[in-house]
Specification:
Elements: E1 5-11, E2 15-24, E3 27-37, H1 44-61, E4 70-74, H2 103-111, E5 115-119, H3 120-131, E6 139-145, E7 149-155, E8 158-159, H4 191-194, H5 196-207, H6 213-218, H7 223-247, E9 251-255, H8 263-275, E10 284-287, H9 293-301
Parallel strand pairs: 1-4, 4-5, 6-9, 9-10
Antiparallel strand pairs: 1-2, 2-3, 6-7, 7-8
Helix pairs in contact: 1-2, 3-9, 5-7, 7-8
The protein binds zinc ion.
């Protein structure tokens, strides 16, 4: 097997995408790519079988004689962190039939091949750090601002998972304990202010009218839209400044639908500058470069070991 070949799978709530890629430094060449619906209503066993099938079909489409190293990215958490034993169980996935199930073990057994796993935000951060907007940076914070908010930390080209596997989980930092309730059981999480649905709800609360985010962003003459976005950019600045104060990355890469808001890159960056503990802001805060491919590319990059704290035996 040629050393640079990898197979990545992006397992989403509505679609499963797989690609065979050839990695050469920061360049990614796609040799084969497939996409199928997740059909999560058909249950857990169906999803395991569908992921096995798309892996085998994509490898065959690329004319590979055997499976290359395989990585799978998905929403939710799939790690237990260092020092734990027993199967890795899925938590917090929006593909709910996976929650509480030993998905990685079951997939490896059905496939007869090892599989590396990470959540979708870590895959996004890894792909952008290695092949996208963060190329050449040693410390990258990648954020998905979409239907939820997730984050991932990449240090020198490798995911930093953290001692308990939650590194980069910025979306559930609590900004206001009396804020709107979050599915995680707390209130006022970053996700409840900066996800697409949260911004749309904030606009609806002001106006009684539900509009999609891109419409709100385009309504320059609508005081309620301007006020909603002013709150969004201010919250973005305050919340991101906290990350920068602690991690001090060279670059923050934004992905997900909300990252298309132009206001984040002027008023949002200005708000970060106001809140960060420095008299200037050198951190680059930029839009993603890989688009929808980040998930599947990041998954393909996973089979190299993630950074973990050394075990103290
Ligand atoms: Zn939360």
């Amino acid at each position: 097997m040629e050393p640079g070949l990898r197979l990545g799978v992006d397992l989403g709530g509505t679609k499963i995408e797989a690609a065979v890629v050839r990695l050469d430094g920061g360049a990614v060449e796609v040799l084969a790519r497939r996409r199928v619906p997740t059909e999560q209503h058909r249950g857990y066993e169906h999803i395991v079988a569908a992921v096995v099938r798309i892996i085998q079909d994509t490898a065959r489409q690329a004319h590979l004689p055997a499976l290359p190293p395989v990585g799978v990215g998905m929403p939710g958490s799939v790690t237990q962190g260092a020092g734990s034993s027993g199967p890795l169980l899925v938590k917090n996935s929006n593909t709910q039939c996976l929650n509480g199930r030993p998905f990685r073990d079951d997939l490896q057994r059905a496939l007869g091949h090892p599989v590396a796993f990470a959540n979708d935000a870590n895959c996004f951060a890894l792909a952008e750090a290695r092949c996208g907007a963060g190329r050449g940076c040693r410390v990258v914070f990648g954020v998905i601002l979409g239907t939820g908010v997730g984050g991932g930390i990449v240090l020198e080209g490798r995911i930093w998972e953290g001692a308990q596997g939650i590194a980069g989980e910025w979306g559930h930092v609590v900004l206001d304990p009396s804020g709107p309730p979050c599915y995680c059981g707390r209130r006022g999480c970053v996700e409840r202010y900066l996800s697409g649905p949260a911004i749309e709800q904030a606009y609806a609360a002001r106006t009684g009218v539900h509009r999609p985010l891109h419409e709100i962003a385009a309504r320059a003459d609508d005081p309620a839209a301007r006020a909603t976005l002013a709150t969004t950019t201010e919250t973005f600045g305050r919340a991101l400044a906290t990350v920068i104060n602690i991690l001090d990355p060279e670059i923050v890469v934004l992905g997900g639908g909300v990252s298309n808001l132009p206001q984040l890159y002027d008023e949002g960056v200005a708000a970060v500058r106001r809140w960060v503990f420095n008299d200037r802001l050198q951190t680059a805060i930029v839009r993603h470069q890989l688009g929808d491919s980040a998930g599947v590319f990041g998954a393909a990059l996973l089979p190299e070991p993630a950074l973990r704290p050394p075990a103290l035996s």
